[in-house]
Each structure stands twice: as structure tokens, then as C-alpha cells.
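name: query_chain
kind: protein
chains: 1
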Amino acid sequence: MSFCLAFFMTAWVTFLNLGITADYFYHWFMSFIFAWPAAFLIAFSIGPVVTRLANTLYQRSIDKN
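structure:
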């Protein structure tokens, strides 16, 4: 999951910042190399919290019906 997120987000943000240039793929790759570990750590650390929150919200929506 973190791989896909970092892959597409760095591609998009690099495109928005630079456009398609001769150095686009170099800058994209360098951005991806730095972003992927960060995305992994963030997803790994807050994933359980987000899962619990989603389950709580889901249970509340079921209990209302």
C-alpha cells in the first residue's frame, strides 16, 4: 500500500511542480526513494489507529439502524 501511494503521489507532485521535462524521471525517482520509507512508516504506525476508528464508526452506524 505504501509503495503504491508513494509511487503515484510522487509522480503526480513531481509533474505538478516540474511538468514533463528531460529530468522528470530522475526527479520522480529521487522523490520516490525518499517518500516510500516515510509512507511505509506512517502507514505502519497509524494503520491500526485508523482501522480501530473505522470499525468504531461502522459499529455506530449499525447501532443507529
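note: Residues 24-64 form the longest helix (41 residues).
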